[in-house]
């Protein structure tokens, strides 16, 4: 399987597999075939793996071994799905045979009897093959689950029914460019979007940067925010780390504090929005909202009201893992951020693991 499955897709896939294993129809068939203990173990292992997926997504960009683990998990998940689909087919076939009405006598009865025997023999041969497949999948699941400890993947979930996202440290606009590998092409693309002005467009251009956790969305936004051409192009710039808590009052107040750090503001949304509108009035501004999860259009619309007072050419960058946020916030084309190249990943890992001196030695 080529490509890469991001956290949202992979976690959803694991959820689907757990639901399949727990389905009454499949469970009934598993008990009849005396493989219910194996499927129960699959369910337990899959739930434990699910609990560390978020941590794995955050660590994969600095640890290639975690990235390989995610690739292996993805391939294994597809194989598990194939087995469960085969189980479902066998269960349906058995139900059809059981539900078969009493056949008529004579030649037709002989045909029905022959067909039933054929289906039963086919199922028997299939079960022999299925047994070895189940053993193989169980061993692979146990192995990939055991690797969690060696990779230091931790449970940051809030139980199976309600995932809680890991609260990371708030981001800032500061970045050390000498420590960034790759992203030259991506930075150039974002700069082109920021520096392009369309006098006929009165709306603030909202550019979502979307991608899996840890892929570098914040870093790309930092690189663009601190570019000299961007500093010269915009009258005002502000950076806000939003994260899980999308509180319109808090975000509005933080934008104001970013624009005027020495001013004190009241906790009144109406007054804050009026103040922000006055500060942005006829000014070309750039606002970065980092790590946005909220999909509520009404809250987003209220937040953006003061920004409509800005000058034409104003831009807003939203970084997010959630494609649902893109549909709510984006007024310009979204920028889907892809993973680093293999060479850039290797350079980053070498620096983290061995230090700058060793990295320079390797490249010379």
TrEMBL record:
<dbReference type="InterPro" id="IPR027417">
    <property type="entry name" value="P-loop_NTPase"/>
</dbReference>
<dbReference type="GO" id="GO:0006952">
    <property type="term" value="P:defense response"/>
</dbReference>
<dbReference type="Pfam" id="PF00931">
    <property type="entry name" value="NB-ARC"/>
</dbReference>
<dbReference type="InterPro" id="IPR041118">
    <property type="entry name" value="Rx_N"/>
</dbReference>
<keyword id="KW-0677">Repeat</keyword>
<keyword id="KW-0611">Plant defense</keyword>
<dbReference type="Pfam" id="PF18052">
    <property type="entry name" value="Rx_N"/>
</dbReference>
<dbReference type="InterPro" id="IPR002182">
    <property type="entry name" value="NB-ARC"/>
</dbReference>
<feature type="domain" description="Disease resistance N-terminal">
    <location>
        <begin position="9"/>
        <end position="95"/>
    </location>
</feature>
<dbReference type="GO" id="GO:0005524">
    <property type="term" value="F:ATP binding"/>
</dbReference>
<protein>
    <submittedName>
        <fullName>Putative disease resistance RPP13-like protein 1</fullName>
    </submittedName>
</protein>
<feature type="domain" description="NB-ARC">
    <location>
        <begin position="184"/>
        <end position="354"/>
    </location>
</feature>
<dbReference type="GO" id="GO:0043531">
    <property type="term" value="F:ADP binding"/>
</dbReference>
<keyword id="KW-0547">Nucleotide-binding</keyword>
<keyword id="KW-0067">ATP-binding</keyword>
């Amino acid at each position: 399987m080529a490509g890469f499955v991001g956290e949202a897709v992979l976690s959803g896939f694991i959820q689907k597999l757990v639901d399949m294993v727990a389905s009454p129809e499949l469970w009934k068939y598993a008990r009849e075939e005396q493989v219910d203990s194996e499927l129960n173990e699959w369910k337990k292992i899959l739930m434990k793996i699910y609990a560390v997926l978020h941590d794995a997504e955050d660590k994969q960009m600095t640890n290639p071994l975690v990235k390989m683990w995610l690739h292996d998990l993805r391939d294994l998940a597809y194989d598990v799905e194939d087995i469960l689909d085969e189980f479902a087919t066998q269960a349906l076939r058995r139900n059809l045979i059981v539900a078969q009405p009493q056949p008529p006598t004579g030649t037709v009865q002989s045909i029905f009897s022959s067909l039933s025997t054929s289906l039963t023999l086919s199922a028997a041969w299939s079960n022999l093959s299925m047994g070895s497949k189940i053993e193989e999948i169980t061993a692979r699941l146990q192995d990939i689950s055991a690797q969690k400890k060696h990779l230091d993947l931790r449970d940051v979930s809030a139980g199976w029914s309600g995932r809680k996202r890991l609260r990371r440290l708030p981001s800032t606009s500061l970045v050390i460019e000498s420590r960034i590998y790759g992203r030259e092409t991506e930075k150039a693309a974002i700069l082109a979007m920021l520096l392009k002005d369309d006098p006929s467009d009165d709306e603030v251009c909202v550019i979502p940067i979307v991608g899996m956790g840890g892929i570098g969305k914040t870093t790309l936004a930092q690189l663009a925010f601190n570019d000299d051409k961007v500093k010269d192009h915009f009258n005002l710039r502000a950076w806000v780390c939003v994260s899980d808590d999308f509180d319109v009052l808090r975000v509005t107040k933080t934008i104001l504090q970013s624009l005027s750090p020495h001013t004190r503001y009241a906790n009144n949304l109406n007054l804050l929005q009026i103040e922000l509108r006055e500060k942005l009035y006829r000014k070309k501004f750039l606002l970065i909202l980092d790590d946005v999860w909220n999909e509520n259009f009404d809250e987003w619309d209220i937040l953006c009201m003061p920004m409509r007072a800005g000058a034409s050419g104003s831009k807003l960058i939203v970084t997010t893992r959630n494609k649902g946020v893109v549909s709510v916030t984006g007024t310009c084309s979204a920028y889907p951020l892809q993973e680093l190249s293999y060479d850039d990943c290797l350079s980053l890992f070498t620096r983290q693991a061995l230090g700058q001196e060793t990295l320079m030695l390797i490249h010379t």
